[in-house]
Write a structure and sequence with these properties.
It contains 4 helices and no strands. It is mostly helical. The chain has a domain of 39 residues.
Length: 86
């Protein structure tokens, strides 16, 4: 544990720096946006997400990504899984 190796103040600084470094790297590969949906669409999306045991925002992000990949297949070629014929 960090507090065993460092005094509490130093441990908090180290944890803060680690989290900040991780978030900086994470934000380089992801971006956030806000969308507005009709109430009925949101409720259906929420029901779908609940049925899959995942957050509504996670399902919405997945669906948007799939739609963009379909729209621009040249930018997002299919990934080939190991063991599959090429």
């Amino acid at each position: 544990m960090l507090t065993a190796m460092y005094p509490l103040k130093e441990a908090k600084i180290l944890m803060s720096q680690s989290i900040g470094s991780y978030m900086a790297k994470f934000s380089d590969v992801t971006k956030r946006t806000t969308i507005t949906l009709p109430k009925e669409v949101f409720e259906s999306l929420e029901e779908w997400a609940d049925g899959e045991g995942r957050p509504t925002a996670n399902l919405a992000a997945f669906l948007v990504e799939v739609a963009v990949r379909i729209k621009y297949p040249d930018r997002f070629p299919p990934k080939i899984k190991s063991g599959e014929p090429q």
